[in-house]
């Protein structure tokens, strides 16, 4: 497994704290705000984490425009690499965990109860 000079976030309260493009616009404006392309973000992620890209998204992370690139490693771990859409800097890497109750992978979320229900879940 190749991780070049970055630590992987292990706790759920780790999140993007900075970036070069602050956003307040509608999501439809994101592509015109990005300085680097999706292809460049993909190449940066794969230079950081060895594997194959599962999915990519240009997204708002705490008010900053970032590319979220999910990479599946040879060991079948999914690493979510957050890349600044302005500078191409890797801001954060998170390991997604298996969510068997919901049929896939997810990032850990402190808003969920240990029994798998959401705080806003009113099921009885």
Automatic annotation (TrEMBL):
<protein>
    <recommendedName>
        <fullName>PepSY domain-containing protein</fullName>
    </recommendedName>
</protein>
<feature type="domain" description="PepSY">
    <location>
        <begin position="36"/>
        <end position="92"/>
    </location>
</feature>
<feature type="region of interest" description="Disordered">
    <location>
        <begin position="99"/>
        <end position="124"/>
    </location>
</feature>
<feature type="compositionally biased region" description="Basic and acidic residues">
    <location>
        <begin position="99"/>
        <end position="117"/>
    </location>
</feature>
<dbReference type="Pfam" id="PF03413">
    <property type="entry name" value="PepSY"/>
</dbReference>
<dbReference type="InterPro" id="IPR025711">
    <property type="entry name" value="PepSY"/>
</dbReference>
